[in-house]
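Lesson 9: reading folded outputs for more than one chain in a single document. The general rule is that every protein is listed as its sequence immediately followed by its structure tokens, and records are never interleaved. Here is the first one.
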Amino acid sequence: MNRLDRYIARRYLANCIALFVVLFAFVVGIDVFLNLRRFIQAARDLDPDGSSLKIVAATGLAVIDLWGPRLLQLFSYLSGLVIVMAAGFTAASMVRKRELVAALASGVSLHRLSAPMAMAAVLVLAAQAANQEFFLPRVAHLLPRDAKDIGKRKLETFRVTLLRDGAGRLWNATTFEPSEQRLTNVAIWERDSSGYITRRIAADEAIWEGTAWRLIGGIAERPGASNQREVVERIETDLEPTVILVRQVAGFGQSLSWRQINAALSQRDFPIDKTTRDRLNRIRFGRVAIMLSNLCVLLIAIPFFFSRTPVNMASRSFRVAPLIAIAMIGSVIGVMSPLPGLPVWLAVFFPPLVLAPIAIAALSSMKT
């Protein structure tokens, strides 16, 4: 890599960092503006007797505590957009300062000048992959927090929403406490083979006892027979606390690492239904596919930004913006949509396979 390559790559990475900072500040600023009262109240709850200065400082710390983990997630979401925008800003600066013309006059082709950008973009995508594998999974449990949860390092309880057990029952609970293996405000719907509800069970609490849930205040009633109630004290099911935890982990699928998803899929204590298995496989293989698609979108956009002569970059940007938006949105939809007849690990790579020939054609058509 010569001096010109290092110069272009350094300018490109500087623009990437600047764009991340601007976008992060924009998103966090809007949220703080809309929910400032909630942040102030959370700061007062942490220090009720604090002075005004302490409340201001605590409010700032509350924003950092809530949005710190979220920025890691936002980094993964914005990486594809940033690498394309940074290419546009870098090329515009080089065109405006006539640096591109000088490089062409020295015999360097546009294809050669675009190589440092592509390599720097690969570094940004590698940082995204590292963030997804090593940093984001460590804070995944903090992402669902709200202003009322500021200061908590972990969520000790969570809601159980319509989980199905092996007998076809649907379980719902206001809270689940993993440490105590207890459900509160439990509702259970028993169904027949056609899916119709045959009995509804409500209980104040349910405590796991090895093979069954012991219900406290459990009452069952059948549809159309509200006056005929029966007491239910125990329900045997395969929906044990470990199963509930793993299914909750599956709900954090977008924030889990490849290793964690593999661990969830390799559980032998209970079978994971095909829908959940396909979704987790689509998430882990889809990450690679989306990064490849973003790189292809960058290569498609570069010919619009690089020109042998000074051009109006604003008009070029307006021309390429719809194409970039369609390609990126289409990539996400294509990765998350199943293709009949193809295994999940192969179907997710359909968008980059479509974009790769377009990228090659775009680079080949660049006049240099």
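And here is the second record, again sequence then tokens.
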Amino acid sequence: MELQSYRAEDLFEWVTGEGHDFTLLDVRNNEEFGRFKVEGPYLSKMINIPYMEFIEKEAESVAQVQVPKQESIRIVCAKEGSAKYVGEILVNNGWKDVRYLAEGIKSWGNMLAPKLVAAPNGYELYQFIRPGKASCSYGLIFEDEMAVFDPSRNAQFYQDFANEHGARIVKTFETHLQADYISGSQQISTATGAQIVGHANDFKDATFEYKNLDDHEIFKFSKGGPEIEAIHMPGHTPGSTSYLIDKKYMATGDTIFILSIGRPDLGGMAEDWSKMLYNTLKTKIAELNDDLVILPGHYIEWAEANAQQMFIDTLGSIKNKNADIYGIDNEADFVRFIKDNMRKQPDEYAQIRKVNAGLLEVDDEDQEMMDLGKNECAASMHGR
């Protein structure tokens, strides 16, 4: 039987929907596998046998697979070639349904899955799930215009999505200067002329043109539609800003998560930023309606997804789930909580911040390496 490939979009469908029975064989080395792997609510069978073991000890490696030969195997590697090589070995050893991931793990890392959150009053609001980074960006379409919130570096996806919906991207809203992934705002702006919107506390040193927002500033589409209110919520970063859409939905970036909150220690000023975040929790967030639908910038695990496999929740529900955080009633205890949960940030975060401010240029291959891997942005990601 001829070996076939599959796409990252296929893999997303298989790991997020019922009825797809297969084993995922990851042939990257143990270190790469430990740092970043495919995840999904319906991915139950995954094994890691490094590619080099198939080269050096083919028979022993084939024996390690331990998957009945009538069952399906899907292989993933770093760039495609190793998975294809191993796939040929498995086919030659009697497996009938074997496929390899086209373009390797980077295609999974960059893939975006659109989900329609709501379509009220003539506009459409989308969540773009990036499972390789456990992150979410958003798109808001009204008439022939589209606004994007926290786009990833897969800029072409957003442009194609807008075109498919008869729209053009007119604004990209940044909730903060991202540290865990490379933003697509600069690419989108260069290609489309879209205005980049962000807070000067984060972007004052940026080398590109952007619109400095004011707290509670209102942004509109040219033909009306839903209003977008910028609400400054410092803490994760000094310029962190959430965007209230039509007074119903709020894109919160890394400030409010479904589980936990955004960590305020990534800038190396844990105590000062923790105090800002505590003030944001007790003033800005405390003033919001519990019925407000939160659109977070990241998730920690797939258990946070709702029945439609989207990462959205009401603020009231989030407060209940994180009562141990929102219930802290004094600044000192909050700072202590942050410090007790602090952990080393990935080394590449400092470089990513420079790229996102336009202060550092790196080629596509280096961007791929910097951008790969699950985020580390939650304050209490471990130990809760």
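What the second record shows: The two ends are 48 Å apart (CA to CA).
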